[in-house]
## 1
Amino acid sequence: MSSHREAPEIAQDPVADSTDVYAFVSPDTPGTVTLIANYIPLQGPAGGPNFYSFGDEVLYEIHVDNDGDARPDITYQFRFRTELRNPDTFLYNTGPITSLDSPEWNSRQSYTVSRVQNGQTRVLASGLSCPPCNIGPLSTPKYAQLAEHAVHSIPGGIKVFAGQRAEGFYVDLGAVFDLGDLRPFEHLHSQYGMHVFSSAAPGVNATAMLNVHSIALQVPIAQLTTSGHPVIGVWTSASRQTALLWDAQQGRKVHSGPFRQVSRLANPLFNEVLVPLGKKDLWNTRPPSDDKLFASGVTDPELARLLPALYPGVFPNLAKLNKAGKPRADLAAILLTGIPAGVVPGFTNYTGSVQADMMRLNTSIPASTNPHPLGVIAGDLAGFPNGRRVFDDVVSVELRAIAGATVPLVDKTFTPDAAAGQVTDGLTADSVPAGFLDWFPYLGTPYSGFETPAR
């Protein structure tokens, strides 16, 4: 998964767990970039009576680096406040919620968004309403329209949204973490001699019919870039205060002290697949500028060594490459520095020599009129790893890169295995039942508990 339950500590703190980051030139609003950070993974829609919400005690941030040092030059901060109108009912709502100020909506959230630059914090807007969770046709009729009212225009030509959305990341978790089974190729798996699979099978989207909570911004490009430098690096983080006490008299937790980062995310699957188990919690607490500490997981990825063993005879050229022990410069470029000019014709998202996990976006490349979910490797320079759009097939792209498909970008003498350009978990954007929107905030309408069958 992109970053769902990716480390031991944060798996116990889903409210602060970032699941996905998206950054792309807005296809319907020229001159702007859309940034999306998702939190609270794997939400079952029927989550009542205590439906999902952002953490009032969590500091959520979206960071932008525009000078290549992997340190934030611009940060958007989000703080949430929950209002319980009637503490004497167990109900989230006491009737249909037909508007964001409906008196029938008992437990609601609002938020403040601030911009931090050059050490100065400026509140852009406060008291912005989140939409409710999508409960069902009686509680949240006309939900899509209700959620549209939670898209706010704030000073600076910025749009903002914070609330529940349908999970847009598609991945076959059940197979991938069953000892690296890729269902379309499972008959080629070693199967450890058990002979379980005799033929290929279609992928199964484990995140289908699940929701997330999204923080989305649409910002004019000029507010994010510096003159002559169109490439930005983007990541998100969540922080908690250092002290937590239980107030027995009030029956609640009390938070105090300075904020410390407990979660971060940029490129999909980075901490999930490339950082070893013993360092995952550490990685979540460090800034991208420290990622040289974890670079060996990129230049010598464990999964690249496992593929020839799991699929005997399928990846002989990858096996030779692994044996040679040469660091994977292609993966370092894709994930740690950006791709320099001259490697892919007409394209660069290079931010410099500082190795850092950032979602790099060249804002001078317009949105594609004919987008391809495989992005840059399919010739669509507006897609992943040039930022990431909500529908991009990042699992297939990263599997193919790790399998050796991108090595010729830096070593013309290497011939990838035939399977490297075909490997996939068997899913496409059509695997997302809710689909996607063509307008902000782009992720689809969340699934309701009433309409979602039991899993």
## 2
Amino acid sequence: MQSRRTCVSSKLRKTRIVMRDRKLASHVPATRLFSRSQLAVMLKRYGMVYVKPDTGSLGIGVMRVEKTAGAYRYQAGTRICVLRTFAELYDSIRRQAGSRTYLVQKGIHVLRHMGRPFDFRIMIQKGPSGNWKPTGAAGRVAHPRKAVTNGSQGGSIYPVDALIVPLASKKASSRLLKEMYRMAKLTADRFNQTYPAMNELGLDIAVDRRLKPWLLEVNTRPDPCPFTKLPDKTMINTIVAYGKAYGRRYCLTCSKSRKGASPKRLI
């Protein structure tokens, strides 16, 4: 059944939409409703997970949780808690979550720049002809004291090549970008079947140490702020032009995210 909605807030609902596509499903980390039993099972299976609100944005409320030798550890913002037992861990996280619905997601050991985790924001938009087109790709490096990469949390924004080329090669970077764009197109096609009124999506894609991309989250009202921090303004100009065509206006005053160092200093 099709809907005229242009925004979906539930991360779990969006994950389930993506999981309907067989090609995308292998790129989606296991995601479950947060509960005591699911936290225990997934920590045992994966060693590290992320616990995050089912609704919300900007990286607010996201916790990185891991099982270490003889203890448990989780990070929320810049605060790090070490607890001796699983019961203490669960009770502490439950207090942090309050009455909100939370999810637990398999943790991906992502690539790092200067010891800081990074991922990518991919923008895809619907053109006047009704076809979806990827219009932007930007790397997001986490704040030195945080586990989340969001620019609103003090993350730094880089061109894709500036982060991938030093770790792999120019060819690998090009191949990875093509794969992320392919994932964005498949995601847009899948969402379009249920929500044909949607005009834009922002994908958060992480890359593991084997250079496999993982689709962490789909944003149905994406913030274009990361693209304002790139040296080349082509992407943000394209995003704004596409948005204008379907009636979207963006606030481009982006004070919390930072512009990453010059690529010349990274390679």
